[in-house]
Every structure is written in structure tokens, then in C-alpha cells.
Design goal:
This protein has 253 residues and is an alpha+beta fold. Helix content is 41%, strand content 18%.
Length: 253
Amino acid sequence: MTPAFLNNQYGLLADWRVYLEKRLGRRVAFVERDRYRATMDLLRLGKLDFAWVCDYPYVYLRKRNQARLLAVPYSKGRSGYRAYLIVPARDTHTRSLLQLKNKVFAYADPYSNSGYLVPRYQLHEIGDNPGTFFKRTFFTYSHRNAIEAVAAGVAQGASVDSFVWDSLAKIQPQITARTRIVSRSPEYGFPPFVASRAASDRDFAAMRKVLLGMNHDARGIALLRRLNLDGFKIGDPATYGAVADMMNAMGGR
């Protein structure tokens, strides 16, 4: 699990683990990491079978044949999400990213699409240098932390995953209420579940079957509601083409 998942929900993870163990008929261990790169390295080394990652790490790993698309979550009937540009709620004047020039900006993670690639790509497209545009930038290593940094006024802006912001607005609205959404990006493919090369075809099929079936039984539906999801479906790698194009435009890392 990476910061694609709304962190600090340890009870939910424990219940989800029990659910998966019963459906799979084997032990399940969740491995949490605070940075995308750490999860990517574990996948690359075959230390994980499956992971829920951001779309940026998936595109990066797929390009190197180090991950397979397992399943894609969907919420409110859609399997996409947006990048929200947010500012402190008391900032009633900012209407675009350009107005944050020479301000302090929080990035979620250097391998985050919405939390890093999107705002830098937007600046690149209009001819600005992302490295010098802001007065100062820093990494929070989760979208929730980026939201909290803006809410507290530590950062004057951030770009965050809409799924995380919307989920946090449901469970802790006092945090998101101290931020204001300035703009919403086009939709990108929802952060997917992926399988590493260490996962056998049999395990791949079993895990996919369980995830796709969660919205067909009472316990699964209850967990999905706590995850703020409708369910999971088989995804299409082409859905992540826009992220791949932005990565290539920014140097192809």
C-alpha cells in the first residue's frame, strides 16, 4: 500500500486483510510504505506480489516490464480521478497555478502524477521552468499530508489526488474545509492495483477474482464503502496514455 491509499485507516486495513484471507484461503500481509519509490523497488525486486500504486509508478514499471495491471478501482461510477489545485481557504483571490509564482508549494511525491507531474507539466507547457517558478517546494510524501500542509498555511498551494481530497472531505471535513479547490484537471486513469513479476498466473487470477467480486457480497460492499469505492474492474493500460505522454514530455523518467 502506498499513499494512493488514504493513510491512517489501520482498522480498515486490518478488516480488509481478514476479508482477503478468507476469500483467498491463505495468509495475507499488507506492507505499507510512505514513498512510491520504496513500493516500486519492492515490486521490482519481487518482494511484493501486489500493490496499490499511483498511475505514474504503474506507467514507469510497465515500461520496464516490471508490473502487470491487475484491477482498477472505480468510484461514483467512474474509473478516473483528477488533480485538484488547492490553496488555503482564506486565499480567495488565486484562480490559477500562475498566480502561485514565487509562493511555497507542496508536492506529494516525486513519483506522483497529480501531486508532482501534473503541475510541473502545466508549467512546462506554458514555457515556465518548474524548478524556479515557486519560491520554495517540499515533499510531503502523501496527498493527505499535502492537503494538511495547505490547510495549516505551511504551503500556499498544492496539487492533490481528487480521490484522496474527496475521501478526506467525508471522514475529516474540518481539514478540507480549510482548503479551497482552485481548478480541476482532466481525468486520469484511477491509481491501479498491479502485480509484480513474482506473482504467479494462478495467484494473479485468484486476487483479481476476489477484487472484482467485492461488490457482490455484503462484507465486500461494506469494505468498499469505507474505501469510498464502488468496486474494481479489469483495466486497460491505454487508459494511462496521457500520463505516459506527460512523462515523456518531462524527460521520460
